[in-house]
Amino acid sequence: MSTLLRLLPLIACALLAGCSGKSPSSVTPTRQVAPVLADETARDVHSYAQPLSARVQHVDLDLTADFAAKTLAGTASLDLEVQPGVTEVLLDTRDLNIESVQDAAGKALPWVLAQPDAVLGAKLTVTVGSARRITVRYRTSPTAAALQWLTPAQTAGKQHPYLFSQGEAILTRTWVPTQDSPGIRQTWTAKITAPEALRVVMSAEQQTPEGERVADARVWRFAMDKPVAPYLIAIAIGDIQFKSLGQRTGVYTEPVMLDAAAAELEDVERMVEAAESLYGPYRWGRYDLLVLPPSFPFGGMENPRLTFATPTILAGDKSLVSLVAHELAHSWSGNLVTNATWADFWLNEGFTTYFENRIMERVYGPDAALMLRHLGWQGLQSQLTSLSAKAAADTRLHIDLAGRDPDDGMTDIAYEKGAAFLRSIEAAAGRERFDLYLRGYFDRHAFSPQTTAGFLRDLNEHLLAADETLEARINTRAWAYDTGLPQTAVAPQSPRFAQLDAVAAQFAARGAVALGEVKGWNTAERVYLLQSLPRKLSAARLQELDTAMGLSATHNSEVRFAWLRLAIANRYSPAVPQLEAFLGEMGRRKFVLPLFTDLMGQGEWGKPIAQRVYAATRSGYHSVTVGSVDKVVPLPSAH
Ligand code: BES
Ligand code: ZN
What residue owns the CA closest to ligand 1's atom 1? Predict the structure, then answer.
């Protein structure tokens, strides 16, 4: 569609002067109304919505969870802002069974569900007429991509079933019929009915702390009065308990994990304080975490007020809490200022990776933080190498995702090149000025979508304009729009890692004696060493390494992962049972996908292992992980 056509409603609106952007009367006045960007670069190719014509402002869910049928069923009532002359609203759906659409008086409204696209799902067109609140009655599919329905056996406690959702990037449409675009912020409320024995938690304010008994069920109510991107609407239902961590922080998880989770997360309140001291007040009220069952496909997900986290962060020694710093940082970068479309995913993840490390530095000191930056930089280098060969254009920060799955753009480039860009601005402007700038940036754009172009404009106006030498030293356009890394990029160098380079080199020649006091090393040191060892080692050396570092027995998921990759590279069969155990225990894509990919790269040794293990573990993984691994490991039988 031409730009002009797309802007027509806006132009008409300006001419008629009848639509000042005020909310329709059905929206309660206390709710904030968020703007959508009319900017050309903010066009979202992953949504059918036409928000400049008709947009969803508020979602009100009334859903019942049926664990036997694996469905959420009920209604989503949507408050709409509709421009004069516009008669239709376009919604995003995928795999939903739509039963009816009605106006507020219960009158049926005409609707059409288009043929589905494999990635985007099906456009739902509703002829709204003069209605400003519509109610969609629907049920989800048992295979809804956002939802994973776990049997009791797949949980830690083994007694009760469990449900959780994962909305990012475009999966919310598989359980909520709305305008599923990060630039279309919506307030929301929910009433959820679930079996009496289970607790419901959502990424919003809990209005019924213990639920309300109704027959053999409990009803739970939630409200998010700040406009959020729809990918941040999240739910979990299960045998879930709560433990407080601090004044406004706490952890939810299954009872058998509660004490371990609370101990691991004891620094969370301090992290919130550190984050606030850097970039201004935490604006979401409480900050709680939900530690999920092991099939959760991500390390963490920044659902507002309630970060979802993998149990693989429970290392027993708080050594993997940088993940919490990361998800917490999203409360500013991502949840407050949000990528307008997935082409600018780096605005969420690059800012957050930068901010995460600043929190870590405050709470755990500069040496530990530098090691983490150094590891991140190494990840960036290997990502650049692999992408440069097959998809060099994807080494840009702002990427072209037209006709593609947004997952394609979710690489280390967004995280680590994005963070490196911000570090180069910090280096040029000085930390104090840059911190001041960032604090202002979050305030100026709070509760708004942002584009790469918008960020560069803001940066120019509020930081670069004051000093002409800055732009020359940074080269912001090259960072934002060119492939690869600009000359101005500076590699983080941990002096401790330089020592470990020498240790790694000696290990090949001298064996475990070269390692010295490895028992006292932290996670970053262990991971760095494992990644720095020569990829080819003898079985005897690998066995020595295992014994010296206690690798077979470790519960530290990052160390285990680095060890298993090294073992696979050497076709080291004694590690196969551990590998199988790890792949069967958790479904975090960041671990599962590379391990299967590595196995497939090991020809007649690795392929049969990959196929045998995946045939056994696949049904336990979330659709996000399955979708990625299916592309790598061909299974003989149709599934
Ligand atoms: N928002 C992401 C998770 C995500 C990314 C979900 C893309 C869906 C699509 C989250 O903040 C994240 O980055 N998680 C990381 C952990 C982090 C410490 C780098 C993860 O899950 O590994
Ligand atoms: Zn993130």
Answer: 301
